[in-house]
């Protein structure tokens, strides 16, 4: 690593000052520290958010589950509040990386990083979640803007994510064996406003599958999902799987997700 200074503020206000001065925010460190070790990132100052207690925690509030940005994956997976209200979200968290990653990684860090194969972005988009920052509330539909890109402004800090409680929901992914990121992951949610389907791992970032949503809104069954194709030309291909293979997996994971939601 290159030399850098390390700060661990205890309040949001102090963290915000450091961030606006150019400090690089550190949540769980699962991406940033690895990038620094490989010298792909060289921040002069690292601002660790782990000391800000108000950024962690889970609560049920007005028909939604609110999760603090510094809440770790293992805490989401093990939370009885989440398990009872949105079991699909707890299940998603339990399948992120390995035990060590889940013990350190945070929901806020994952959402802010917006890796194109990460799991949480699919949950936010499918559930119609809202990302809360120190300055505003951003709908998930507006938050994710492509490869490692979000609507966050420079120095803006995610404080929490609120998830409306769906009628039914499920997440299924085909993991890449080495990283356990999603080769393809599909989150399906049946809500009062209709069915929402989000796909991760397929390209430059998480996206909603409009054709799948239309089919499942008419008939929320695995058979309906099976009839919907996915354009391979819109997906990426690499040594782990071609775009055609990924397109096939979207249909398979969608069918399994609907079946799980109905179980």
Defining key terms:
36% helix, 12 helices, Uridine Diphospho-n-acetylenolpyruvylglucosamine Reductase, domain 2, Mopterin_DH_FAD-bd, Enolase-like, domain 1, 263 residues, alpha+beta, 23% strand, five-stranded antiparallel beta sheet, globular, flavoprotein
Architecture overview:
The protein is an alpha+beta fold and 263 residues long. The protein is globular and about 55 Å long. The strands form 3 sheets. The chain has a 5-stranded antiparallel beta sheet. Strand 9 (168-175) and strand 10 form a beta hairpin. The chain is built from 12 helices and 12 strands. Among the domains are: 1-47, 2-Layer Sandwich (Uridine Diphospho-n-acetylenolpyruvylglucosamine Reductase, domain 2), CATH 3.30.43; 168-262, CO dehydrogenase flavoprotein, C-terminal domain (Enolase-like, domain 1). InterPro entries: CO_DH_flav_C, CO_DH_flav_C_dom_sf, Diverse_Substr_Oxidored, FAD-bd_PCMH, FAD-bd_PCMH-like_sf, FAD-bd_PCMH_sub1, FAD-bd_PCMH_sub2, Mopterin_DH_FAD-bd. Pfam families: FAD_binding_5. GO terms for molecular function: FAD binding; oxidoreductase activity. Keywords: FAD, Flavoprotein, Oxidoreductase.
């Amino acid at each position: 690593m290159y030399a850098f200074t390390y700060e661990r503020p205890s309040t949001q206000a102090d963290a915000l000052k450091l961030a606006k001065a150019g400090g690089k925010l550190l949540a769980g460190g699962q991406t940033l520290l690895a990038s620094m070790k490989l010298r792909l990132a060289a921040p002069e100052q690292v601002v660790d958010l782990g000391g800000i207690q108000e950024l962690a925690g889970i609560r049920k509030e007005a028909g939604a589950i609110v999760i603090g940005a510094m809440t770790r994956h293992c805490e989401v997976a093990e939370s009885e509040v989440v398990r009872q209200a949105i079991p699909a979200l707890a299940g998603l968290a339990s399948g992120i990386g390995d035990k060590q990653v889940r013990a350190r990684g945070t929901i806020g860090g994952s959402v802010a990083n917006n890796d194109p194969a990460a799991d949480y972005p699919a949950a936010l988009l499918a559930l119609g979640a809202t990302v809360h920052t120190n300055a505003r509330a951003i709908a998930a539909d507006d938050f994710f803007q492509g490869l490692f890109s979000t609507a966050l402004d420079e120095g803006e800090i995610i404080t929490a994510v609120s998830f409306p409680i769906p009628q039914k929901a499920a997440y299924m992914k085909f993991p890449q064996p080495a990283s356990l990121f999603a080769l393809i992951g599909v989150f399906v949610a049946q809500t009062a406003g209709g069915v929402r389907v989000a796909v991760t791992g397929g390209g430059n970032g998480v996206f909603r599958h409009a054709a799948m949503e239309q089919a499942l809104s008419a008939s929320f069954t695995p058979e309906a999902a099976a009839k919907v194709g996915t354009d391979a030309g819109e997906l990426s291909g690499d040594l782990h799987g071609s775009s055609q293979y990924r397109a096939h997996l979207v249909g398979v994971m969608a069918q399994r997700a609907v079946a799980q939601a109905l179980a």
